[in-house]
Design a protein that fits this description.
This protein is an alpha/beta fold. The chain has a single domain, classed as FAD/NAD(P)-binding domain. Helices cover 29% and strands 22% of the residues. It is globular, with a radius of gyration of 21 Å. The chain starts with 19 loop residues before the first strand and ends in a 27-residue tail after the last helix. Bound molecules: flavin-adenine dinucleotide (FAD).
């Protein structure tokens, strides 16, 4: 069974023109379209498959400030308020709640790292509580074992990946925008170096502004425009279990396994960072840029298989605008999880949380997580021709910060004062050797 996902109806007609075309209906594209439509701009959101069907429905649902890179923290903090704001404005159930995130550990170095982050967070006005051994063991009572320490971030929360992007896209229609599923954007047209149109498989939309929020496909799309965007994706396994377990925290992270309570009362189980690297030509091209990140995560990364090559999202090919493109051949990236990984996650979860011992597995799936070399997204209105904004490379954190990213994108497209500082998201930082440190957390 694949990741659960609410489906919505598309708009009936592709518009001949729009103020802004947003390419990609994941959480980032949906939120960008929402905030643009809320400003009264005529927005068309085009998605090659179903809204939310790639990364944005396949994730844990964590919306966290905890352990965020300094460059992302203001957007993460703002996003938490925006999750509430969008839910209230639309009346849609996005499954968002500030349940707090609980991290438990027996590793003193890890606990010290969390304490260091807590000190930094305090300077940014973000509160997070370090837990003594007694407090950690009490909060982690469901594990039935003592812990050396932990951290609890009370203002963080979770949202429902099955609902969030589709419900927000539906609200775009409610605010006068249009949403087009099974409608791949094949490419862009320019006049005098400025965007003039988006060519989709179903026709051309004239526009002066384009947002590319194409997730794992963004770099191959950029290549058609002559833009080098260092991006790589890894295949990450995840599973859900049926409802029935009691007393388990809503969101718990340990190095062995992490669990998240779902809307139906079941839990999502995964191991942080666990992923396979499926080789692709794009990966080879950007290998040098990604080596430090992969080296840092070698314990949880393993060599993958040919499914990345077959999927075509990281192709180096150029495509024609009057022919079907790789996006039309692969409507939804739905890679298989490694069976061994799924068994391992389930076993670890049942060992850690005795309540799960008799709860059957419900579903298992995988997602390609797209990353930049420094683990921080690119949100850049100057990455390509005038009128083009690139928003991708959310590096495993994009679900929680989707609302903040969408709001920032709308600010930049509309020419308004950016709601958060954005220069740290420029593509130029990733030109070889210039991108500095890999995100610590
Ligand atoms: C297993 C897993 C666990 C994760 N856990 C978390 C978590 O707990 N918290 C968190 O914050 N993040 C998490 N993430 C990361 C998060 O899911 C992503 O960062 C986020 O969803 C990225 O959103 P996006 O909109 O950029 O991309 P996506 O959701 O991948 O959406 C991009 C969309 O663009 C479409 N598209 C691409 N090219 C075109 C085109 N040319 N024309 C039309 N459409 C196109 C695709 O079909 C796709 O639907 C996790 C990811 C995975 C896989």
């Amino acid at each position: 069974m694949p990741a659960p996902l609410v489906t919505i109806q598309s708009s009936t007609h592709l518009p001949a023109q729009a103020d802004v075309v947003v390419i990609g209906g994941g959480i980032v594209g949906a939120c960008a379209a929402y905030f643009l439509a809320r400003r009264g701009l005529q927005v068309a959101l085009v998605e090659k498959g179903r809204i939310g069907a790639e990364q944005s429905s396949r994730n844990w649902g964590w919306c966290r400030q905890q352990n965020r890179d300094a460059r992302e923290l203001p957007m993460a903090t703002q996003s938490l308020s925006l999750w509430e704001e969008i839910s209230a404005e639309t009346g849609a159930d996005l499954g968002f709640r500030r349940c707090g995130l609980l991290y438990l550990s027996d590793d003193e170095a890890e606990i010290a790292g969390w304490a260091k982050w807590r000190d930094f967070a305090a300077t940014q006005g973000v509160t997070t509580h370090m837990l003594t051994a007694a407090e950690a063991s009490a909060r982690g009572a469901a594990t039935g074992k003592p812990w050396k320490g932990g951290v609890f971030s009370p203002s963080d929360g979770i949202a429902d990946p099955a609902r969030a992007a589709p419900m927000i896209a539906a609200a775009v229609i409610g605010r006068g925008g249009t949403v087009h599923q099974f409608c791949a954007a094949r490419g862009l047209e320019t006049e005098g170096g400025k965007i003039s149109a988006v060519v989709t498989e179903h026709g051309t939309i004239r526009t002066r502004q384009v947002v590319l929020a194409g997730g794992a496909w963004a770099s191959s799309f950029c290549r058609q425009l002559g833009i080098a965007f260092p991006q790589s994706s890894v295949r990450s396994p995840i599973l859900s279990v049926m409802p029935g377990a009691k007393g388990i925290p809503d969101a718990l992270h340990t190095s062995a396994v992490s669990v998240t309570r779902r809307g139906d009362g079941g839990y999502t189980l995964a191991v942080s960072g666990l992923a396979s690297i499926d080789p692709t030509l794009q990966q080879l091209r950007f290998a040098r840029s990604f080596l430090p990140m992969f080296a840092k995560r070698w314990r949880v990364l393993s060599p993958g298989n040919l499914s990345g090559l077959k999927a075509g999202h990281e192709t180096l090919k150029r495509w024609a605008l009057d022919q079907p493109t790789p996006m039309e051949r692969m409507r939804i990236l739905d890679p298989r999880p490694s069976r061994r990984a799924i068994e391992m996650i389930l076993e670890r979860a049942r060992q850690l949380l005795p309540e799960l011992a008799t709860i059957p597995m419900q579903a298992a799936w995988a997602g390609y997580i797209d990353s930049t070399p420094d683990g921080v997204p690119v949100i850049d209105p100057e990455a390509g021709p005038e009128g083009f904004l690139l928003a991708a490379g959310f590096s495993g954190h994009g679900f929680g910060i989707g609302p903040g990213a969408g709001r920032l994108i709308a600010d930049l497209v509309a020419g308004d004062r950016p709601s958060v500082a954005h220069r740290q998201y420029a593509l130029s930082r990733l030109s070889r050797g210039a991108w500095g440190k890999v995100s610590e957390f």
